[in-house]
């Protein structure tokens, strides 16, 4: 079976080192297996996503030397997302929820570090006009079953999602299709059978597997890779390199590093090179092996140039 993998960045800010590391690993894994590598631009959150960020992310990936067999824009997939909601509604699974995130604070901790939802609104019915007439957020009632799952890198992902995380929101109050539904529907439509992504997404996997089962969709093979972290803040925990934390972006990176230099830095951090040395992604294919890639997250520092701990 041909491997079909995807890189799916959100278009809510500049590409940063963590973005480029994940893209590189997705691309290397797919190409080393003779498979297809897809790019999906996740732009559903209209309050944060911008077309300029989507354009810049594609530019950054091209600059690094990554090519894609197909490119999908997630907002173009609305009809498929609504069809999935129709199916879940027909099965009696959807219900409106007026609970706020702040209302869960102080309750039960979820595996992702947030507050679990206690399924408070289960039993509420959709309005007479169906889910499209609902003004509250829409959740799906999951089965109360345990999902037993270990990813390809032996990361334990087993959960009882309905309890550990709570029934997920599938459509937000403002009408935006939520990540959990979109990712499941879009992966299946694209024939994705292999998902490579950062460990920060791992706690969502069991919920996504449960949604796949409810919708009759196949479950891909999953692997979750290490993250790049910002330096430890005083009294705080290491934080994932992310746009919301003001991490260095593509604009600054390319003023201080050539593309092959940055590729070499990322490859060294990933254990694919013995030392940082300029290279192109295609030069890493022959030696690509997940057994070389560390499990432990690494800290990256910006001192007018990027440094990643050994």
Keywords:
three-stranded parallel β-sheet, four-stranded mixed β-sheet, alpha/beta, 310 residues, 8 helices, Rossmann fold
Protein structure class: alpha/beta
* CATH class (first level) name of the largest domain: Alpha Beta
Instruction: Identify the CATH architecture of the largest domain.
Output: 3-Layer(aba) Sandwich
- What is the count of helical runs? 8
CATH topology (fold) name of the largest domain: Rossmann fold
- Taken in chain order, the helices and strands follow as EHEHEHEEHEHEHEEEHHEE
Low-confidence stretches: none
Question: How many structural domains in the coordinates?
Answer: 2
Distance between the termini: 36 Å
Percent helix: 25-40%
Q: Kindly report the spatial arrangement of strands forming the biggest sheet.
A: 10-9-11-12
Global shape: globular
* Percent of residues in β-strands: 15-25%
Q: Which whole number gives the mean pLDDT? A: 94
* Radius of gyration using CA atoms only: 20 Å
The major β-sheet equals: 4 strands, mixed
Strand runs, count: 12
Q: Give the CATH superfamily of the largest domain.
A: HUPs
Can you walk me through this structure?
With 310 residues, the protein is an alpha/beta fold. It has two domains: 148 residues, Rossmann fold; 108 residues, 3-Layer(aba) Sandwich (Rossmann fold), CATH 3.40.50. Helices cover 28% and strands 15% of the residues. The protein has eight helices and twelve strands. Strands 10-9-11-12 form a four-stranded mixed sheet, with helices on one face. Strands 1-2-3 form a three-stranded parallel sheet. The model has no long low-confidence stretch (mean pLDDT 94).
